[in-house]
Amino acid sequence: MSRYKQLLFGGAMLLLMLAGISLIYGAQTLSINTVLHTLWQGGEQDFIVNDYRLPRILIAILVGTGLAVSGVLTQGIIRNPLASPDLMGISGGAGLAACTVLLVWPNIGSVWLPVVALFGGFSAALIIWLLSRWQQPSPARLALVGIAMSAFLSSCINFLLVIHPIEVNSAMIWLTGSLWGRNWSYIWPLLPWLLTLVPFSFYLAWRLDLFALGEETAQALGVDTQRLQIMALLSAVALASVSVAVCGTIGFVGLLAPHLARLLVGSRHQLVLPIAALVGALLVLSADTLARNLAPPLELPAGVLTAILGAPYFIFLLHRYKGW
Amino acid sequence: MLTIENLTIGYAGVVILDGLNITIPQGKITALIGPNGCGKSTLLKTISGSLKPTKGKVSLAGQDLSKLSHKTKAQLLSILPQSPITPEGISVRQLVSCGRNPYLSHWGGLSQQDRDEVQAALIETGLCDLADRAVDSLSGGQRQRVWIAMVLAQDTDYILLDEPTTYLDLTYQVELMEMMQKMNRRGKTLVVVLHDLNQACRYCDHLIVMKKGAIIAQDEPHKVFNSQLLKEVFSLNATIMMDPIANKPMCIPL
Ligand SMILES: Nc1ncnc2c1ncn2[C@@H]1O[C@H](COP(=O)(O)OP(=O)(O)OP(=O)(O)O)[C@@H](O)[C@H]1O
Ligand SMILES: [Mg+2]
């Protein structure tokens, strides 16, 4: 087996193991036998295993994949190691839109929330894009603009929460990047997006390899770079936004996963994408499992845990990156 | 035949080339010469289509190049940019394989023929031993040869090379010039930016001399290359002699 296949296999095994752990541990610890039995035949623990923990695990995997793939696409197209959907304010935009709508209209339901989030994500992306066209920013500056945007958007969210204190509870839990109370009804609206956009990213993958040679060379090799950029960015924004719609802004996954994947398998996108997806899924699933188990029955937001890992790494990147 | 009609182009509103008319002879090697910043790279980028002219057009055998699809164009014309970007960790063979992109189907994947062409390009540029090395671990000259191999693998009838001899030692410079002549004998039309005027005269059939975005002369070397031109374009006092080996003009600065 090649090293790459070993990595994929190892990653998948790890994910499976983690899913097992996540099914077993929680406010109530179950035995392996009970879990297996319940998965097959239901029974006493049917609610905890099949309606509570299992959908959450699946959502963590889907959202992790979505954020990671979104990160790979963004970094590939902006050729900026600091680019990622959350650092560029795209997640913030999606979050703000979703939060606004939730406050005004608390029962919007899980089908429409991704659509609202998409709208917010695209608006944020459009603003970033206009800013970057206005004055071709260096990578660092673009990252700074994005961070400023993110900060601005999250203060807008805070403002909304402060002036609507009564409905705060439901919106707040979701915004901190948490999978609390996420059940099957959140999976179905998420699936079609991922099932189309993730394969589409693979379709874009080898074109992104050419894009990495520089816009001029890519064009000379027959790549319609403008179309590629638009398609990749749209997919990246859509993936990040629908993920945010389900569990809020789980930060740094879109930054960390692609970097880790590149560290493991080099820079070719076809190879990077699956590994990044695995890493993303592992990150979110372990963050959520920890979040549920650190102080049961209380829950920490998974986003806080990914930030504990992600923020130092971001600072490390800033320190290492010399191309200001 | 590659023709450029009334071409005007600039960056962010500043006009660099204004109303150029150029004919690039079919099946010849054309050298583009001129001082730094006179617009040589800009001209090549416009021909290859990565810059959109504000006026005028570039046509190939009477057909407007900007009307062709990106892929079709990449099967006709290739360009080696002056300073290409080398992604981290890409191997020599992978980079050279990128040259086959215009011939691939939607999902990519090299055919046996593609692989053969890549191998041939590696052999031609003497890179076989380095094929599995990372490009960013090579020396400047080796790296330059990788990019040339990529252009070879692209196998187009028209080839634009922007200063292909930079970083190369004299042996490889001469080898590259001879490689260009070999490609030319196989029917390729080449346009190359050179800073060594003597090399341009010796190895190329046609000279295009530029200064500040304008064409000063375009013709065969022995017709245009004289001390007056050098004075006008490069502000250089030089005497012209015939090179005793190739019987082409060469200049010796005074
Ligand atoms: N991206 C750009 N934006 C603005 N101006 C540019 C840009 N690229 C080139 N220029 C300007 O256009 C002019 C022509 O540049 P070009 O690169 O075509 O010169 P060149 O003849 O290739 O020079 P060299 O021999 O140094 O490579 C120069 O004055 C340069 O400053
Ligand atoms: Mg140049």
Walkthrough of the structure:
The complex is a heterodimer of chains A (324) and B (254). With 324 residues, chain A is mainly α. Chain A has one domain: Orthogonal Bundle (ABC transporter involved in vitamin B12 uptake, BtuC), CATH 1.10.3470. Chain A has 13 helices and no strands. Chain A has helices spanning 3-24, 32-41, 46-78, 90-104, 112-134, 139-163, 168-175, 184-211, 215-220, 225-247, 253-265, 269-293, 302-320. The longest helix of chain A is centred in the first third of the chain and has 33 residues, at 46-78. Chain A is globular, with a radius of gyration of 20 Å. Chain B has helices at 40-48, 70-76, 92-98, 112-124, 140-154, 170-185, 197-203, 221-224, 227-234; strands at 2-11, 14-24, 29-33, 55-60, 63-64, 77-80, 158-162, 189-193, 206-211, 214-219, 238-242, 249-253. In chain B, 34% of the residues lie in helices and 28% in strands. Chain B has a 6-stranded mixed beta sheet with strand order 6-7-8-3-9-10, sandwiched between helices. In chain B, strands 2-1-4-5 form a 4-stranded antiparallel beta sheet, with helices on one face. Chain B has 9 helices and 12 strands. Chain B has 254 residues and is α/β, with parallel strands linked by helices. In chain B, helix 6 links the parallel strand 7 and strand 8 (189-193). Chain B has a single domain, classed as Rossmann fold, CATH 3.40.50.300. In chain B, helix 3 runs parallel beside helix 5 and helix 4 (112-124) packs across helix 5. At the A-B interface, helix 8 and helix 9 of A face helix 2, strand 6 and helix 3 of B. The structure holds adenosine-5'-triphosphate and magnesium ion. The site of magnesium ion (MG) has 4 residues of chain B, from helix 1.
